[in-house]
Structure formats: structure tokens, C-alpha cells
Design a protein that fits this description.
The complex is a heterodimer. Chain A is an alpha+beta fold. Helix content of chain A is 52%, strand content 15%. The longest helix of chain B is centred in the last third of the chain and has 18 residues.
């Protein structure tokens, strides 16, 4: 029998038993929808976590800390977090850019306003890798002598010390032009009437710097800092140490300096965890990456997904029983019909194909409608619940996410459920005795 | 016994188990049927005539003995093989017509062709022709429940004829019909099979119907008790 004929025959058979077909299909629709919607909520949750973490910072980043002085590497040798170690760590599989971080807390002044904040020096390659969105100006480059790249909130924190006691933390609008000359100083009274009076032993210093750019984002952990080149930050740090030492240089030069903090950028998100792990175990440093947190959160999300999906799965199981029931009834009802077809030349394979196809059509049809319905429900949830519930559960902008693989998987699954539950009835139809079936009633 | 006969039945025995009890439906039956012959199995209810037909048609396997159709050992084929053999060579006419209630007369007649994989453009004209042959021109679109018993059986006959089978089996084809219609149907069956050179094996309990046949095989208690060939009298098996 040609496939087209079988298909038409099956379709006709299903139509003939309209009510029962529709009821079975409804069962599959409910099952499929339950699975898709449940899992989509889990996916939404997982996406929400990621969204939340991304707002905290960069998922590609592993921060390395020198707490505990490098508790001993693989060889038992305590590692120093210095240039040599960094050069070695750069070769770890997955590391894209690595940069030590030198920071100096200072007072920055310009245009008769000032602010107090962390000036952080990192390699310009790292600044590029961070892919920060700029609102104004450009990134610092290696040839810059004293560049300053303002975080949006840092640029907004400048205040006039004569008019105000301190910075306005809520403000995100820049209060100075970030692309001008600034003075960096260690004098806490700079710009006030008591300038230079409370320094004690410390020698007041003022260093010129040039603003080159400002970031756009207000809600990540770069927003409150000012970034510059590693070299300029190193210079600042040395000057500060010297000033505190009453103006005399402090022993060590930059050679062999131990860093407190090293940033490691891993372009491949899959490798962030392994890089972090390697640095912890092989080098003995503490590491922190949002990715570790994300992994934990995603584990939770996956568990919730599994539980929700399981609940959905139960309803599809019930639907499967419904299909099996429909098909078994159908075999009983059509005993004579099947026998006649066999006698006048239907092959056994065709008979089985017919029943499997009918069951599969119920499964697939229900699946298709279920997918459509799920999209509808998902839309409604995202539209009307995202604000209300989403906020309450710390979820992101979407309550429910239906990725394309979920749709395909659900369709495949519902069709499979149909075929599997149709298998035993089909087998029964195939093996049925022709003579029994033809006995006159 | 003639090895050139189309159908050769050799010492066929069939025993059913009814619970603990063995029931012998066919004892030891041998018969030759020639190409183009119209053979009638005549017997009362329970004589074993229907079992005999089922055995020859491959619907049942004999407990012992052999059934050959041409060079094919029917008794040795499995169900799938028998199905294919039937698809190619055999047509059936039933007492209860056994038409598909959901299909029109045309679709019913075309069904065996469809099962064979014949495309619609070819099988529908063929079915139409077969319907015209049995005198049902214009009834193509009717469903079985919109037709009389005689008309339904004509559809059944057309369905058997449409595949141009070598052999047609008919089990009490007129059992559900009144005497007037019976005559019409029997005339039709014998005429169509004669014209096509089809071998026809018919089972009945009705002597008047048996008279249409070339060869009447009387069966009683699982044995052939008389073979009567038209022209010759009382050839005892």
C-alpha cells in the first residue's frame, strides 16, 4: 500500500471516530502543554538568574586573590602572585587575557569638583576584552601616559566640596565633563578651606591625569571605579607609598612586586569553571567568579525544571494511557474490518503501520496544538505575570522561555508517546486470527 | 490424482481442540481442481466444507497433509507469505459481504488494488469498470448501508473480480439473499468467472446452487463422499 493511501485511510478512520479521537488528542494537548509550560518556567527562572548575575558583573571573569600568601602550588612551592606566576597562568587552557590589578584609593579633582574613588590599573588588553560600552570618549591605550576611564557612577559622583558634604550616591548623571584634565591627590581636604592642613607626616602630592572616556552602564561593578593603565596605577601607588613614608622612596621597585589581585578573562564561558578550579588547586590562590555562582544557581534551576517537567510528564503519561485505550477499543471494534482487509490482500506490515500511524497522528496532532497553546500561555505569563510574580521571586524579565529545542523535543515526545501506546494494539491487530474476525455475528 | 491440476489437495486432515476434546473437522481429504473449473463444496452445517475452503485458501493450516496451488506449497507458507500470495492470486466473496461501511461502493471495489499499491488514477477506473460489469453503473458513490443485500453482494463480487485473480473463493455467497436475488447473483458469478477463465470454489449447503457448478464435491463428517462431474455421473473418490 502506498504511504499516501495509508495516510488517507488513517485520517479517515480517525475522523470516523471523531469524538474519541478528539478526546485522546485533548489528553495529549494537556500533557504536552503541561510539560512545555512547566519546563519553560524553569528555563525562565534559570535565565532570570543569569540576567541577575550579569547585572552584578562579568560572567567571563575569574578574580584571583592572594589571601593566605599562595597556600602552596602543585609542587608544594608557595606561589607568589607576581609577574612570573601571571605569565605561567596565562598559559592555562581557556585563559584569554590575564592582568594584575593595582588600585589606589584617591581624591580626583577637576572643574572645581572632586570625588573619592578607587583608581584601578589593568592591562589595556583586559580593558578591550571587558568590552565595556562607552558613552563618551575612548578606551585607554598603551601609549597614554595618564589616562582615566570613568565608570558612569564615578563620573556622577563629583561634587563641589564648598557646597556639599559629600557625593550623591543616587545620582547617575555625570556632574563633570569626563574628557578633561584632572588632578589626583592624597589630600583629603583638597578643594576645601583646610587644604593641606591635616596631612601629618604624609607629603601632599598632586598628579595630573587626562580623562579619556566614560562608560555607559550604571549597574555593574565597573560603574563606581576609574580605570587606567597598569603603568600609571603603578606610578600612583609608588608615589602614595613614598608620600606616606615622608617623601622617601620605599625599598622595592616594581620588579618582583606581589599583586593582591589578578583578573583573568576567559572568552569561552564553558571553560570559566575549569580555569578557576586550576588556579585554586594548582597555584593555591583563592578565586572568585560569578560563573561559579551561576553554576550553583543553574543546578537549582535545572532541579526545579526537572520537578516541573516531571509534573508535566505525569499528565502526558495519562494521555498515553488514553491513546492506548482508544487504539485498543479501535482494534476490537474493527476486528472484522481488519480481517477482511487481511483476506483481500492487506499485508501484515500495512495493518501494523496503519495502527501505529493512527496512534502517532493522535500524538503528533496533540503535540502541535499543545505547542501552539504553550506559546499562548507563555506569552500571557510574560505579558501579565512578569512584573508581579517575577519581581517577587527575583526572576528576570521573563517568566517563561520556550526555546526551539523544547518545542521539537515536545513534538517528538508526544508523537513517540502516541506510537508507543499504539504499538501493542497494532501488534494485536496484526496477529489477530482472520477466521475469528470473519465469523458472522 | 493428477499432478497437472491447478489445485492439488493431498490427504488433508484438520483436528480442532475444543477444550480437552479433539474434534476432527476434516479426516483425510484429497482432491484435484483444474484451471477454469467451477467447483462446489456441498454439505450440511458442520460437515467440514468451510474448513476445507479455509484450508485451500490458506486461512487455516492443515494438521496434516498438503495443499498445492500451482507450484506453491500453501501448507508451508507463513502468514505473511500467504497474504502476499492471496494478494496476487486470490479473490474472496463472503456470505455477509464484508464491505467497508465507511467507504463508497467504488472505494470498496478499489480497496484490493489500493492494498496492492496501485495508484488512484489507475485503480479507480478499474473499479468503475468492475462495478459496471456487475450491473452497478451509477452506484459508485453509494455507501453499503444505502444498498440492498443483492447490490452489496454485487459490490463484493466486483471487489473479487477487480484484481483479476486466478482463483475466487466464495463462502455461501447467497446465504443472506432471497431466492430471486440468489439466481441473479449466481448467474453473475458463474458468467464472470467463465468469461475470465477464473477457477471458482464455492461452498454451499444448497443443492440448487450446487447445480451451477462443473464439479460438485459432497462433504460429510469430514470426508468427501461423492464427486459429481457435469456430464459424467457419480465418480466416487
Amino acid at each position: 500500500m502506498s504511504n499516501k493511501d495509508i495516510l488517507q485511510l488513517c485520517f479517515g478512520n480517525l475522523l470516523r471516530r471523531r469524538t474519541r479521537t478528539i478526546l485522546s488528542v485533548i489528553g495529549v494537548i494537556i500533557g504536552t502543554t503541561a510539560i512545555i509550560v512547566m519546563i519553560s518556567i524553569g528555563m525562565g527562572l534559570s535565565y532570570g538568574y543569569q540576567e541577575q548575575l550579569e547585572s552584578f558583573g562579568n560572567l567571563h571573569m575569574v578574580e584571583v586573590y592572594n589571601y593566605g600568601g599562595g597556600g602552596g602550588g602543585a609542587g608544594g612551592q608557595p606561589s607568589k602572585l607576581d609577574d612570573r606566576t601571571i605569565a605561567k597562568m596565562e598559559k592555562i587552557d581557556g585563559v584569554t587575557v590575564i592582568s594584575p590589578q593595582i588600585s589606589q584609593y584617591a581624591i580626583i579633582a577637576g572643574d572645581h569638583k572632586r570625588t573619592e574613588c578607587q583608581i584601578i590599573g589593568i592591562r589595556t588588553e583586559m580593558l578591550q576584552a571587558l568590552n565595556l560600552e562607552l558613552e563618551k570618549g575612548r578606551m585607554p591605550v598603551a601609549s597614554d601616559k595618564s589616562p582615566l576611564l570613568f565608570g558612569r557612577n564615578a563620573a556622577a559622583s563629583f561634587y563641589d566640596p564648598r557646597k556639599s558634604q559629600g557625593m550623591d550616591w543616587g545620582n547617575t548623571e555625570p556632574t563633570v565633563d569626563p574628557l578633561q584634565k584632572f588632578i589626583i591627590t592624597n589630600d583629603w581636604d583638597y578643594g576645601t578651606n583646610q587644604e593641606g592642613q591635616n596631612m601629618g607626616e604624609t607629603v601632599p602630592i598632586q598628579i595630573d591625569a587626562q580623562g579619556v572616556g566614560m562608560m555607559a552602564s550604571t549597574d555593574n561593578d565597573y560603574a563606581y571605579n576609574i580605570y587606567t593603565t597598569l603603568e600609571f596605577a603603578q606610578k600612583l601607588k609608588e608615589e602614595w607609598d613614598k608620600a606616606q613614608n615622608g617623601g622617601r622612596p620605599v625599598g622595592n621597585s616594581s620588579q618582583g612586586t606581589e599583586y593582591q589581585n589578578v583578573m583573568v578573562y576567559v572568552a569561552d564561558l564553558e571553560k570559566v569553571a575549569s580555569v578557576s578550579e586550576t588556579i585554586r588547586t594548582d597555584y593555591g590562590f583563592s578565586t572568585f567568579s560569578l560563573n561559579d555562582m551561576l553554576k550553583e544557581m543553574q543546578k537549582t534551576a535545572t532541579m526545579i525544571e526537572a520537578v516541573l517537567g516531571g509534573i508535566g510528564g505525569i499528565s502526558l503519561l495519562v494521555a498515553a494511557i488514553g491513546i492506548a485505550n482508544t487504539m485498543i477499543m479501535s482494534v476490537y471494534e474493527r476486528t472484522r474490518e481488519i480481517s477482511v482487509m487481511k483476506v483481500i490482500g492487506a499485508s501484515l506490515k500495512d495493518i501494523r503501520k496503519m495502527f501505529l500511524l493512527e496512534a502517532g497522528m493522535i500524538g503528533f496532532g496533540g503535540g502541535v496544538i499543545g505547542v501552539a497553546l504553550s506559546y499562548g500561555i507563555s506569552y500571557v505569563m510574560n505579558r501579565f505575570l512578569a512584573g508581579a510574580i517575577g519581581g517577587a521571586f527575583g526572576m528576570g524579565s521573563k517568566v517563561s522561555i520556550i526555546p526551539i529545542w523544547l518545542v521539537l523535543a515536545a513534538l517528538a515526545f508526544s508523537t513517540m508517546v502516541g506510537v508507543v501506546s499504539g504499538y501493542s494494539p497494532a501488534q494485536r491487530a496484526m496477529n489477530m486470527s482472520v477466521l475469528e474476525g470473519l465469523k458472522n455475528e | 490424482m493428477d499432478d497437472n491440476a491447478l489445485i492439488r489437495i493431498r490427504h488433508v486432515r484438520k483436528v480442532y481442540l475444543m477444550g480437552e476434546e479433539k474434534v476432527v473437522a476434516l479426516d483425510d481429504v484429497s482432491l484435484d481442481i483444474y484451471k477454469g473449473e467451477f467447483v462446489c463444496f456441498l454439505g450440511t452445517s458442520g460437515s467440514g466444507k468451510s474448513t476445507f475452503l479455509n484450508m485451500v485458501a490458506g486461512l487455516e493450516k492443515p494438521t496434516r497433509g498438503e495443499v498445492w496451488i500451482g507450484k506453491v506449497p500453501i501448507h508451508k507458507l507463513n502468514e505473511a507469505q500467504v497474504t502476499i500470495f492471496r494478494q496476487k492470486n486470490i479473490g474472496f466473496i463472503f456470505q455477509a459481504y464484508h464491505l467497508m461501511q465507511s467507504m463508497t461502493a467504488l472505494e470498496n471495489v478499489a480497496l484490493p488494488l489500493m492494498l496492492k499499491g496501485v495508484p488512484k488514477e489507475i485503480r479507480e477506473p478499474a473499479a468503475k469498470k468492475a462495478l459496471a460489469q456487475v450491473g452497478l453503473k451509477g452506484y459508485e458513490g453509494r455507501k453499503p448501508n444505502q444498498m440492498s443485500g443483492g447490490q452489496q453482494q454485487r459490490v463484493g463480487i466486483a471487489r473479487a473480480l477487480v484484481v483479476k485473480p486466478k482463483i475466487i473463493f466464495a463462502d455461501e455467497p447467497t446465504g443472506n439473499l432471497d431466492s430471486h436475488t440468489t439466481k441473479d447473483v449466481m448467474d453473475l458469478i458463474s458468467k464472470e468467472t467463465k468469461e475470465n477463465g477464473t477457477t471458482l470454489i464455492l461452498v454451499t449447503h444448497d443443492r440448487s446452487i450446487a447445480d451451477y457448478a462443473d464439479k460438485i464435491v459432497t462433504i460429510q463428517d469430514g470426508n468427501i463422499i461423492n464427486v459429481e462431474v457435469k456430464g459424467k455421473k457419480n465418480e466416487i473418490a
